[in-house]
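The freezer alarm interrupted the setup, so I double-checked each line after restarting. Inputs confirmed:
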Amino acid sequence: MTSYLDRLIANPTSFHNAPYAQAFTLSREEIDRLHLEGARKRFSELRPGLSVLDKLAREQGVDGIGTIDDLAPLLFPHTVYKSYPISYLERSRFDKLTKWLAGLTTSDISHVDATAIETIDDWIDLLDAETDLTVQHTSGTTGKLSFVPRTKAQWRETIIHSAIIIRDWWPDRGPDILKDGMPIIIPGYRYGAGATQRGNGIQIELYAKGEENALFLYPESRFSADIASLGGRLRAAEARGEAGMLDIPPVLLERREALLELERRRPDDLRHFFSEAQRRFGGRDVYVTAMWAILYDWAEEGLKRGLKNVFGKGSVLLTGGGKKGKEMPDNWRERVLEFLGFDTIYEMYATSEQMGLSMMCEHGNYHIPPIQIPFLLDPATGKPLPRKDGLTGRYASFDLMPNTYWAGLVTGDEITLAGWEKPCACGRTGPHVIPPVRRYSEKEGGDDRIVCAGAPEAHDRALEFLAELSM
Amino acid sequence: MADDFHVPLIIRGQIIDDADISYGGRRGGVSFAAPDPAKHVARLPLRTPSSMADLYALSFEEILDFLVALGQRLDFGQNRHLQEAFRLSCLTSGLSESILRGHFQHIGDAFDRTEMRRMMERSCGIDYLEGWVDQGPGRFPGLTARTRAFGARAVHVIAGNAPIVSILTVIRNALTRSDAIIKLPSNDPLTAVALVRTMVEMDPDHPLSRHVTVAYWKGGDEQVESAIYDPRGIEKIIAWGGFDSVKHITRYLQPGIDLITQDPKLSGTIIGREAFVDEGTLAQVARRLALDIGAQNQEGCVSARVIYVESGTDEAGLERANRLGQLTFDALQRLPDTLSTPHKAFDTALKAEIEGIRLNEEDYRIFGGRSNEGAVIVSQDNYPVDFSRTLACRVGNIVPIDSTETAVRAVNAYTQTIGIFPESLKGELRDRLAFQGAQRIVSLGGAATMQHNMERQDAIEPVRRMVKWVTEEQASGEMLAALAG
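Predicted 3D structure, all chains:
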């Protein structure tokens, strides 16, 4: 027991392949110790190499972590990983974007010459080729892309970590995918640098043990960062009037066309995906991963074709993300399971900037691993609330696993935390999130108040399609 | 939980105060109870157009008499309906109590006889409201024509960010001899109720009381809206604000219904290089700019958000822009509390955006924005912040430019007001700004503090469009018969 804890304190990143169930047997004192010592370690190690963190620490007047609450003012607003101006993209100033990113990672990228780069995809490929980073971008449907400077090693650790969770989370149920292998089925893109594509190659290697054991909805296509950025860029251009519209590069408009082409081809791609799923993997135990909203679409399409119980009973599903504002019937979960044909589900609550995942237990609570330091902030003042069960506030957390960038973030989610004083009914120790998880932005916009200030946004069919694809 | 407020339904002089439905979880944690609109929806529209006739028994002067008397009863110190509306608005509005108090204390002023007469003279012409006006000679010899402006049956989907919207709606409806169904906004459901309730207390059978209905239903309620937005009962819809509220309505548009929208808009500022001639001028510009950003807590469509400044974009230019940013932020903090205060519900998403770019020193300089005090963000390049559409709660974005050309080209159809310094620049740019889409061009500082002719808001003429322009023509019978060959 002690050695498990000491190992995590000495090297928090080692949690990625540590036995997972044991993490939820630690006592409150042990968790507190890991949090405090881990925070001190990360702050002192990362501050000198991260200019943005150093600036925040100076702004906040924090020089060291005395108590765990001293970490709270050092958590980044979630906007930090998209704090570059969109004008960098419009003017193809990828040299400046590189310099901006350099302030957010201790990986040395100063040798990268991005002056000739014109698209985000090319910039990401350049960083892939010349640095130890494999940058991950967000889907961008609400505006701008965030860029998270995750390293190649961290991606591999993340994929191993998911496999350990699948093995250990449900006692005596989870397959050991790393050891035994498992076909993987993903109703999405094979390539790309979004959160849901970056791990594909590693999953094929470590889980499927080869391309022949993997099936994607778009097996040849890349989820393009340039396309994902379209929405935010068109909006920014519109806000600048005629000047902005004239500045939209032709390459971007071409990609918009490509997106519409993809939309036209989607029925064919879907048909192919279903027939392959049945032909090659029907009745077999497989690993499936996708967000709920995507799964629901897929399941409805399948059920419409008369497909039910497609995969073997020993299959597993790693998912999360909720309804994402999509209209779904009350029995959406049952519909998905009816289609898939198995019920071993791993449901997570996570943010794309962090490596750790909070998994849902049999009582419906999300358990925060001890390697993550959760905070509830008062939504009005931003001050941390005490570690007491049943309090509700803005969720913020720090993930100790990443060792090259600052993985402490304030989210836009309102949650309730418990487990500090009394463990969950499932027996796991440590803090857990009691659903529902609610977005503050949805809460504030949830009534029909009418004001005269604002500007309607362009409604673009390509962008709507993109929003659906990238959930 | 008992509801804090009651929002009655008032149908043509009859007050229905049942608390059938509770609408909870509104902004500011407010809940209110209102009658079930489904029970009464059939009675909301005026199905018999002939019932408009009673309005024509009144002269324009008699209508003014009634409105002036109404204005006298809208004394905030005495009128408990207004006091109740104020109490609710203090919870739901983006305006602070001190600003709202000023609005409510001056509600009666809007009922000034001279100003109401001027407004109608400018928009319709009182002779057109009062009778048939000869149209002079036309293309066909012997053909004469007379035109009169008639009131219409209309639904008003009003905005709730300031009480003036309710006031204008009631006044315009009466002066045009129209029939109104006012759909109340959840962020200010009681101001229109207070006005109409006071009318009913004056005289429930007066034709002006008999031609106004106020109701709350949740925007998008199909059962209610499909019954109301029907050309058999209404002729026009006047919709303010929100994209969503207009989107609901477009489902019911069909020939026979005229939609007049006061779309959501944003406003901005253009400041010429003359601002930097000396310290005194710069200080005055900063104070006037603070007014355009901060007055009414930046809750209005007229409030300045992105400010283009011809400071230059070289190092010295950025320094000038940053200096203006500092002075403007200081002036913002000193605005009188009847005009502007720290925002009581600072937008948390905007706060996160500000905190994100605060760590990007290379591209942005930020004055303020620590708590709810407001902020001035100075871009260090000639681009606005990427979240410029969401600037609110007294946050302005100064954008340094080398030439006002950049500012002119940034104006589009969603630009409401542009405050300009100096006056000479206004004269120089006004035609071009109009080509781009600008709708009101004012002296810097005057965007949100005063307004001359609100009946032309958004460069449309909502009052003129509220009425029906009916023409009567006359030609000699012999001439017409001759056409038959």
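Quick read of the result. The CA atoms of residues 105 and 353 of chain A lie 13 Å apart.
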